[in-house]
Amino acid sequence: MRRVVVTGLGAVTPLGVGVRRTWKRLLEGHCGIVNVTERDARFKEVPCQIAAVVPRGKKEDGAWTASEWLSRGEERVMAKFAQYAMAATEEALEDAGWKPTLFEQREATGVCLGSGIGNFDEIYDTVVAYEKGGYKKVNPLFVPRLLINLGAGHISMRYGFMGPNHAATTACTTGAHSIGDAARFIACGDADVMVAGGGESCIHPLAIGGFARARSLATEFNDAPEKASRPFDADRKGFVVGEGAAIMILEELEHARARGARIYAELKGYGCSADAHHMTAPKENGEGAFMAMKKALKQAQLAPAAVDYINAHATSTIVGDAAENAAIRTLLLGPEGKQKPADVNISSTKGAVGHLLGGAGAVEAVFSVMAIEHNVMPPTINLDRLADGFDCNYVANEPQSREIDVALTNSFGFGGTNSSLCFARLGK
User: Fold this and answer.
1) Which domains occur in the chain, in start order?
2) Using one digit for the tens of pLDDT, what is the confidence trace for 208-217?
3) Catalytic one among 172, 202, 272, 392?
4) Which of 65, 59, 116, 110 is nearest to 89 (CA)?
5) Is residue 422 annotated as a catalytic residue, yes or no?
6) Which residues of the chain have pLDDT under 70?
7) Per-residue CA distances from 416 to 249, 319, 396, 411 (Å)
């Protein structure tokens, strides 16, 4: 199997547009969660009135204006998640120095981009228009703007990439699955370079209302949104929906070396599993999460003791955080792992950016690679009081400097789908 490395990064997040801006604000403890009732009066009817949104404004200020990234025609035909992904792709390709013009290069470059929900606004608006006015009120672009795989399609069309064109949609595991699947395309020889990641934008009263009815969301922090997402904290009440996108440029190792590309890290392991248990809740012992992490380390040929940092899925739900914590302790503590819980380093960045659903795994993969690049673990903000049973190092409220050679990042989704990615400094 061919080796796969990361040579470019791009992101559009609630902390800003651009990887470096997002990372800087993450380490500074900023939060992108805000009250959204001013966006739509219908949010006032929903128990959860907060979300992590991409800041609007000028590109030069690290904020989002679609026209600065897209032509008028592109903006008209693309779903918002795909727009964010396009901007993140542009940044990642620039970062990687990969803008191929030769046919052979474009043929060997593919795209793997997914979304969990996709264009929710388009579905809602079209159903309302159809009910009021019938067939003639259906936008001719309804289906193209609806299909999740069109995100990858638009990226391939803009840049002329003719390699594998793939779209995962596995709920909140989508971003991680997209990156892992893309790596396998390269490892198996189907491509030399892959644009890989995930995106989401469904900040809509009905979407958030649906999650609220499922009792998944934090509903007690409408007047203090920056305090709402609090992974591992004893007072955590649920997750906060976020939007944005993140992209990695993955590349076959010798291909990257031959063109002198900067290499951030190697993607050494990718593990997948299913809980086979419940639609929305994991097993209390985190068995599915444990299996995904174990498989990632097996592929990476690394022992649990080698893991320096885990970027947890931890969304700030009572059951989910506890199950993942149990899985991590089972994996990393023992004869082949760490000697004591305090040696296990875990943080969740969802306190700062919320839960980006289909984009979460991609954003957190980028954060994991940046942690290796800078030897810094990003903080778990709002962690004021550890819940019972949480005795590891959760990087509470302040970043921590550590030598980070190996990092795991976890993603889990409704339906019991799990994925874990293992990144390592090249040569480790």
Assistant:
1) 4-258 (3.40.47.10), 269-424 (3.40.47.10)
2) 999 999 999 9
3) 172
4) 110
5) no
6) none
7) 28, 13, 28, 11
